[in-house]
Amino acid sequence: MQRNKTAGILLAVLLTPVVLILSSCTDLTEETFSVVTPENFYKTEKEITAALAPIYAQLRALEWNYWNLSQVSSDETVVPTRGQDWFDGGRWLAIHRHQWDPSLVDINGAWVDSYTGIARANGLLQTLAEIEAPNEAQLEAEVRLLRAFFYYTLLDFFGNVPIVGDDEFVVDPNNPPANATRAEVFNFIESELLEIYDNLPEQPPLAGRVTKWVADAILASMYLNAGVFTRNSDQLNPTGYNSCVDVQVSGEQNACQAAIQRADNIINSGYFRLAQDASEWLAMFLPNNENAPEVIFAIQHLPENGLGMTFQMRTLHYNQLSPSPWNGHAILAETYNKFDQDDARRTIFLVGQQYAEPRGNCVGSQCYSQGDPLTDRTGAPLVYTPEIQNVTNANEREGVRVLKYGPDPNNVNGNHGNDYAWFRLAEIYLIKAEALNELNGPSQQVIDLINEVRARVFDPPKPLNLADYSSREALRQAILDERLFELTWEAKRRQDLIRHGQFTRAWEFKDPSNPRVLLFPIPQAQLDANPNLQQNPGY
Amino acid sequence: MSTLLSRILRVSLLLACWNVSVVIAQPRTVTGTVSDATTGEPLPGVNIVVLGTMTGTTTDVNGRYQIEVPGPEAVLVFSFVGYEQVQEVVGDRTVINVRMQPTVEVLEEIVVVGYGVQRREDVTGSVATIDATEINQGVYTSPDQLLQGQVAGLTIISNNGEPGAGLNIRLRGGTSISASNDPLIVIDGVPIDNVRLMPEGAGIDGAPPPPRNPLSLINPNDIESITVLKDAAATAIYGSRGANGVILIETKKGRQGQLQVDYEGYISAASPYKKLELLNGEEYRRFVQEQVQAGNLSQDALNVLGNANTDWEEAVTRTGITHFHNLAFSGGTSQTRYRASVSYLNQQGHVISSGLERLTGRLNADHQAFDGRLRLQLNLTSSFQHDDLLPYNQTAGFEGGVFTNVYQMNPTYPIYADQNLDGTPALDGYFEIADGRTSVRNPVAMAEQVLDFVKTTRSLGNIGAELDLLPGLTARVNFGADRAQSSRRQYFPQQNPTGAQYEGRALQRSREHSSLTFQSYLTYRNTLAQAHNVELLGGYEFNEYMTEEFGVEGQGFVTDVTTYNAMQSASQLVKAGTFSYKEKSRLISFFTRLNYNYQSRYYLTGVLRYDGSSRFGEGNKWGLFPAISAAWRISGEPFMQGLDWLTDLRLKVGYGITGSQEIGNYLSLAQLGANESLQAVFDQQPYTGFAPVNYANPDLKWEETATFNIGLDYSLLNGKFSGTIEYYEKNTSNLLLEIPVPQPAPVPTRIENVGKTRNRGLEFSLDALAVDRPGLNVLFGLVFSTNRNEVVSLGGRDQIITGTVSGRGQSDTYAQILLPGEPIGTFYGPVFLGVDANGRQQFADLDGDGQVEITGDDRTIIGNAQPDFTYGFRTNIYWGNFDFYVFIRGEQGRDVFNNTALVYQTKSAVLQNQNFLKAALDDPDALDEPAIYSSRWIEDGSFIRLDNVTVGYTFNNLGPWSRYLRRARIYVSGQNLLVITPYSGYDPEVNTNAGLATLGIDYTNYPRARTFTVGISLGF
């Protein structure tokens, strides 16, 4: 009996922990530690700012896929295959030659980059609809403006994209949205921007955040491109100018008039001015360019991991910086040759022998002009040549490089601190000039606008004369050229060539292309994920 | 009676999760002793039941028993595993002593199964056992090596030849595409969370090598046996973790008797099995001169040539010396037994500046009380490992680590110099091309200057108690704890180009992992009416897992002297490398199993496990995993009795459902997180951003695998030949796949239960005692298996492109495809036709559009990494005092993508002043032809490997030493002696982790070694 008792006690001792654990017998609630769930967030103003930051952060993503596709698909830039480098399955040359298909990773990347920004904006807008936040109207306007901007990039690249956020903020995965037409997307962005316009501040609450002038700039750009942006690719004129005159937009005016009005809002705002001279023009692209006078909307950078600009890295030779740049993007010889010898904007190019020392605060040819001559990895002098003999087998030195954004001496692992201006005042001048030319044909007013832009960068001045431009067509070409000289390396050229009906023509290393390329295809991965999507014409 | 009932009641109340039966007993007493008929030793734990009743007991440690019987007509049935059953009519005896005959059948062995043991012949599922004593001892550094090639259907591929390299363990093919395919590992009954212990390090650029083998922390000398549960009938008892099979490891226990001390020690020398032929300095110089003369290279190329003749491959490799010592002592009384061991391993890598050092200790003890009715058990093990890692990368790597630079560094350059190529002074005496910014680097300097150390401590302990509540009814509780702490320290000095760009880069990372297990279960065994053998198991298990990690990264140091030890002197702490996190998960289970057999001829087993995991979505927390299996011992039928040559023949059929829940925590929850890429810049300041970091799937649940298994166990000529033939089909559904979600979405993909895969296969094994004569025994074993893997469905997706191709100019190039109808590991790409007169590679125009696009529709299936069949052959020969062991294994019909050759076997490297593989000299490619992924680089990776040859000698007569020395054996052993393969790379058995479910990709791997060992084994 004694033994049984002892055994009983022992058993009880052994089994006590069982009871303790059984109390949590079926508790499978997940306990989180290093992440937060939406239920316990968005409570303070600080948390709401923290939810705003990722929307801005997503703007940086546009500098990879959107920027590369815009640059390399145009006659500005080519990424030659250099030995084994930059072959990458042939995709860089496929982009340049307009031989992409819906499975190209960069195209899907561009789609996802923009929609991720939209999703983050929608998430915050949904939250704002449910909570009270200080200064809510302005905050909501800011978020909607950013969302409209991401839609603007989709309108430009893909045209017919689903609109999410006018009534529902989230996608039902079982019934995902179908494409809207390009005209519907255009109208959505326009109406959004018009609706929030009055709630936007004239000056940003923090440098780098958006103002009403950003809305004006987006609208000005959309109106100028309205002949393209309201039509599907198969309705465009691939070989002629797609004018804003034929498009009616909100306020019963034609798109050209609307573009001029938006441009005037910015020009007359008093917050911006053109650079005074060539040195101030060049200074707008230096690492400390945050206060450049022309900047309306810039993606801000810091020389920190993940926060920097990498345009410098894409173009410079391996031996020109530490850590090693990537020796990729170069400008086409025919495009480089278009630049006037006297144009200060030609400074942005690196050509000829390169020297060891990048000076601080320099742009383009101002850099790498001192010290010992550099060599490439085979020991040959590092002399950049405009001609690329064989684009599929280029050597390390071929192709003129674009160092518009000067290297940041404080760069961290290739992250440079230069801000990337998406809209500058000079472009607004040129938008106004182009819209005026569409509306009324060549006039002194148009020539003056262009000459104001040119006056900064020619010493002595080299203005255009109205007399040289007898037709609207002739002046169009001059404006297109001026945009190239002013906006090189700023991802505008593809858009401009499409508007001017020149995107499908032949240029260096590229044959005439199929007009379907006026829009990128809806990415295959997106068609797979969303059965309600329809492919763009011709793909 | 009342005490019995109250005890039962108490247990029932305490263990709400159990089922308990009620038993009734009667008075009248018989006592006696049960002993072994051959040795006369008492047998503890023998089951004694009164025939036709539920009364029963077991013998105590001294073989004694006491039982109450109803009267003289009662029949006592004595049964014990491994012995013939004995029946005694009580009559008027009060003392009945029984001598039991050991059974002679080979199959009558004990097999460890989930939550208990079974007689081999009672097992109805697919189970393979490895007795560690049968395998050549002493030359294994990790337990997995004991399994390699020994079990049909189990493949183990170590990622490369690095000491302690990570493993790819696959049982009957991979079922999962994105979740883990590793089998569950259970040590002494406690499931081990076989996760990465080591913190991830920073690569030079690109992904660092994959995590290392977590099992290496167990000393193979401590292992008694390993059991592999293969089919659902056997693994369903592990429910949501059983889908990839289960490996049960039992460690050695002490035995009753005097203190025994055993020592094992060996010393071995490892050198690279093979060299990849690169151009030497002379050849490189000549090649450049030829190209300059031909006008393909400018005169400048001659100016950058050096005067040295360096074999960089030779320079980074060496003969690595390993020594190992293991000291174990064991002993015990009839009540308490113990075994303790300590081991020390010091393994030098055969590549410089790499290796590991490991110290393990183990204590196993058990104790019996209350006449053996209470059995307590303790297993404790602790290990400490210090790794010295080599900086190299597995994927990408435009600059790369040691191996990348072995291939590309110009052989005309010296290892040491006063000046760099560009005239700057050489830091620390190592020659570099330039000061700091260069992307091609001296691999010797990199290996020696870059520091990468990991210290890992892991302690596993479990304590268990087993109590015989009633005859046949046993309760068991088991607590297990597993705690691992691993810290990693890296320093890239500014003296080296890898650190120069950061002005010195230091990382410290620490990872802690702990798991807690509690198990309690009841087992009831009985034989009814002499013919119905029943065993019923019911239990509850609780597991909790926790992982914590933090890391700090500093850059910009004034001096290299302080390395990673003075983080505060860094000019900046790098956000990307500075982090911490913690996560926790739970698994709660109820399980039951019924084993029934009728006259040991007809067997039926049913298993039910009810598992709940915190990882799954709200509505899918709990899942039920059933299995049923049956066996028919054909040889036990009367009509088979005439066949003397047929010792045993059994047919087994089983079907069951198991799961896999290895998907990571919190995926069913919407999470907001902050990271570097979510920061905004306002006012020239970074602002922290919080955004969704996943796309919550509240419906998330386990992957489910339904397995059908049919097998035949045979034993011929009194067990001289025995083995198994099996066929299985595994259908996995609800596959956890990352699916692109319709945009806009906060993140582009989410995990869904959509896909399906299937594995079908045939396995065959044979063990034979071919010669059995005095002084000569020849045993051999053969395993053969074939598995057909197929992706059945990818949910809504047509295909998934995977298998990142690494190297210069290969960005966004992929080598593999997951395609319904094709197996995992399918290579996909252009078809190489040849090289044209201009030295351009030509590819097939498959879509017939007149243009060859290497990215579009001109790609097709060009190979498969899964073998047609695998096999292993081993033989043990005992001839007098000599023993010989030979182990050969192979795989046939598998393809390997030689990514190393794709990138480094191209002459165009010379355009960048870089070396290349000599084979490129003979190919007709033009000097400037780029490296293009195609069928050209898919090679036949079939192989036959002479894995191990060992010759040993055991001293029978130790003469005057025999007073001190019980036994002594010396041996010499060679490992990886010969590989017969058409594959041109280092070794066809490789695994570079290049994305989702990739197999058979070889890129800049640590070469595999050939090892010679001399060892000694002593018993005191």
Description:
The complex is a heterodimer of chains A (539) and B (1020). Chain A is mainly alpha-helical and 539 residues long. Helix content of chain A is 40%, strand content 6%. The radius of gyration of chain A is 27 Å and the shape is globular. The mean pLDDT of chain A is 90. Chain B has 1020 residues and is mostly beta strands. Chain B contains nine helices and 52 strands. In chain B, the strands form eleven sheets. Chain B has a 22-stranded antiparallel beta barrel. Chain B has a five-stranded mixed sheet with strand order 10-15-16-13-14. In chain B, strands 3-2-5-6 form a four-stranded antiparallel sheet, with no helix packed on it. In chain B, β32 (680-682) and β33 form a beta hairpin. At the A-B interface, α1, α2, α5 and α18 of A face α1, α4, β23, β25 and β27 of B.
Q: Brief description of this entry?
A:
The complex is a heterodimer of chains A (539) and B (1020). Chain A is mainly α and 539 residues long. Chain A contains 18 helices and twelve strands.
SSE layout:
The complex is a heterodimer of chains A (539) and B (1020).
Chain A: H1 2-22, H2 45-61, H3 65-72, E1 77-78, H4 91-96, H5 105-130, H6 136-157, H7 182-196, H8 212-224, H9 226-229, E2 248-249, E3 253-254, H10 255-267, H11 278-283, E4 295-299, H12 311-315, E5 330-331, H13 333-336, E6 349-350, E7 352-353, E8 355-357, E9 370-373, E10 383-384, E11 401-402, E12 420-424, H14 425-440, H15 444-455, H16 472-487, H17 493-499, H18 524-529
Antiparallel strand pairs in A: 1-5, 2-3, 4-12, 6-11, 7-10, 8-9
Helix pairs in contact in A: 2-5, 2-6, 3-5, 5-6, 6-7, 7-8, 8-10, 8-14, 10-14, 14-15, 14-16
Chain B: H1 2-14, E1 29-36, E2 47-50, E3 56-58, E4 64-68, E5 75-79, E6 86-89, E7 98-100, E8 110-113, E9 116-119, E10 127-131, E11 154-158, E12 167-171, E13 184-187, E14 190-192, E15 223-229, H2 232-235, E16 246-251, E17 257-272, H3 281-293, H4 300-303, H5 312-316, E18 320-332, E19 336-348, E20 355-369, E21 374-388, H6 402-408, H7 443-449, E22 451-470, E23 473-492, H8 497-500, E24 505-528, E25 532-555, E26 572-573, E27 579-598, E28 602-613, E29 622-633, E30 646-660, E31 672-674, E32 680-682, E33 685-687, E34 690-692, E35 703-716, E36 721-740, E37 749-773, E38 776-793, E39 800-804, E40 814-818, E41 826-830, E42 832-835, E43 841-843, E44 859-864, E45 869-879, E46 882-892, E47 895-898, H9 899-904, E48 938-940, E49 943-954, E50 967-980, E51 1001-1002, E52 1009-1019
Parallel strand pairs in B: 1-7, 13-16, 47-51
Antiparallel strand pairs in B: 1-4, 2-3, 2-5, 5-6, 8-9, 10-15, 11-12, 13-14, 15-16, 17-18, 17-52, 18-19, 19-20, 20-21, 21-22, 22-23, 23-24, 24-25, 25-26, 25-27, 27-28, 28-29, 29-30, 30-35, 31-34, 32-33, 35-36, 36-37, 37-38, 38-45, 39-40, 40-41, 41-44, 42-43, 45-46, 46-49, 47-48, 49-50, 50-52
